[in-house]
Write a structure and sequence with these properties.
The complex is a heterodimer of chains A (about 180) and B (about 170). Chain A is of the alpha+beta class and about 180 residues long. Chain A has six helices and five strands, in the order ααααββαββαβ. Chain A has helices spanning about 10-15, 20-30, 40-50, 50-65, 95-105, 135-150, and strands spanning about 70-75, 85-90, 110-115, 125-135, 155-170. Chain A has a four-stranded antiparallel sheet with strand order 3-4-2-5, covered by helices on one side. In chain A, helix 3 (about 40-50) packs across helix 4 (about 50-65). By secondary structure, chain B is of the alpha+beta class. Chain B is built from six helices and six strands; from the N terminus they run ααααββαββαββ. Chain B has helices at about 10, 25-35, 45-50, 55-70, 100-110, 135-150; strands spanning about 70-80, 85-95, 115-120, 125-130, 155, 160-165. A four-stranded antiparallel sheet of chain B has the order 3-4-2-5, covered by helices on one side. In chain B, helix 3 packs across helix 4. Classes of the chains: A alpha+beta (about 180), B alpha+beta (about 170). Strand 1 of chain A pairs antiparallel with strand 1 (about 70-80) of chain B.
Amino acid sequence: MLAFTSKPDPGQTEALDALAPLDRQLILLTQDGLPLVPRPFDALAQTLGVSADEVKARFERMLANGCIRRIGAAPNHYRLGYRANAMTVWDVDDACVMELGERIGALPYVSHCYLRPRIPPQWPYNLFAMIHGKTRADLDGYLQAMAAILSDACHASDQLLSTRILKKTGMRFRGGQ
Amino acid sequence: MTAQPINPPIMRRTPHDPSDYQLDSVDRRLINRLQTGFPICDEPYAAVASELDISEADLLKRLRHLLQTGYLTRFGPFYHAERLGGGLTLAAMQVAPEHVERVSTTINRHPEVAHNYERDHALNLWFVVATEKPEDVEAVLAAIALESGYPVHNLPKQREFYVGLHFQA
């Protein structure tokens, strides 16, 4: 057991108070996307029977408190030419994985970087980093750089290339209560 | 709850529609600009269009087209399941090759499954589960194990070092 697992980073995983009903309705209305009309917040306000100012204020607040990570577009990175994508996994000493995880997460080609539990003996890896390149050669260069950073603290590693996207819809709340 | 998505026809399009549409330079600037920092104001599309020196109508037309042709999988707010009080995890399964289709259909049927990837490893199915209530994660994983006949490994994050990446179009 790692010492810090009982103390998750408060800024990252602590849930807020119960979701306000209007926020929840806004989430249900926009989890598929923002309306593609000139006045999208007016359109949402009209559907919910509230003012556009109220809707904008709630989006501002959800952005500020981290309930919304960002508002924007998700590119299909494969279609943009990023065809070499891998989930890289590393067995890193518990004593230094917090510091090394920060350094790996800061690399420009890393989109997600997490500490996760091992599943011994089948799965010895605790550090996960998704990396994205246009070619296999890009990927190989990234892997070398990551291995150099982790150095002796890393005992084993693997790269899991994605062979197929079976689903990619993003988070969905079920409708209904 | 009676609220319905406002623009379902666009978002329900598969991101894998075959299309030989090639991006032009305006599309590329638009994709790069729209990945972050969309303004919250009365006419946000007009505001971004003006930054890019195009008309609002052109921007909306291009945005719809990029979604339809699969260059973009989604446009809108990205919600943070855990900050909203929900549950989130990564799960992995080791499934015999001849059962991958059946099991992935079983997995994907659950609306809580946000992404599902087949990967080249003994653990060959990897999917993300996001639920409105934290306790529902276990229920979804248990249901998938029961329906598929395969064990499901739960790999919840213990620490998030980084999330985010700007893909240059």
